[in-house]
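Thread: "does anyone have the structure for this chain?"

Original post by V.I.:
We have the sequence but no experimental structure in hand. Need at least a predicted one for the grant figures.
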Amino acid sequence: MPTAELRNAKIAYEITGTGDPTVLIHGSLVDRSTWERVRTGLAPSLTVLTYDRRGHGDSSGPPRARPVRDDASDLSALLATLDLYPVHIIAHSYGGAVALRIAADHPEMVRSLALHEPPFLGLLEEDPATVPEAERLESATREMVERLRSGDREGAVREVVNSLAPEEGAWDRMGHAVQQSMLRYAYRWGEEISDPEAIRPDTGAASDLLVPVLLTTGERSPPFLLRITNHLANALRNVTVRTVVGAGHAPQVSDPDRFIALIHGFLVERSVPFT
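Reply from O.Q.:
Generated one for you, tokens below.
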């Protein structure tokens, strides 16, 4: 597995396919392997870069002082090292915050964005009707972080997984190997969710973006994620919102073919070149 030595991190990556450069940014509690079925599905038409964010998979590096900005800096450095830009960016969950940050800081590197359910809980505070929901969710998140810091790693991750799943008891239905993989990244999740920019995007910078943006939400995802997606759509100029039928928070795993079809359709509809 090739790696890139950056300023203070070693980033593992893989490049496959042919066509316009495209990078896949994974979310929390996972690594680049979560994109495997999407990677192989996109490779016939796009050059696909998958990578492990710092501290995930085969990548390494110290804890991040500002996770969103540090992860965006890692990615921009990786793209520069590989001379692989401008790129289409496809991002899941927390990865969407990283994608928006790099698009704001390095617009020359980004051709389009496709973001699936960034968990920007702070956006719910923009509407008086959803302020109570925001307060409840943010309080629950703080409790999860405190549980993690107290040493109850499994209890914290169990709550995270169950809060995002379309059905109750999702954690208990997971295989042992999947559970152990998620537990491996628990403390990195704690870093990420404690970053204010992971909860509330820079809406001023987002409103200045000119690149096409696709926002997707799962038909079976918790309703608060759809409300967040709609608030984010209102902050963007050049945006398309689509629903992944039958999917939840992780369509790249549960419904990759439908997810890929939406991405290809978006690129065609917005006349974003790809081969």
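V.I.: this helps a lot. The first strand starts at residue 3 and ends at 5.
O.Q.: and The chain has one domain: 3-126+193-269.
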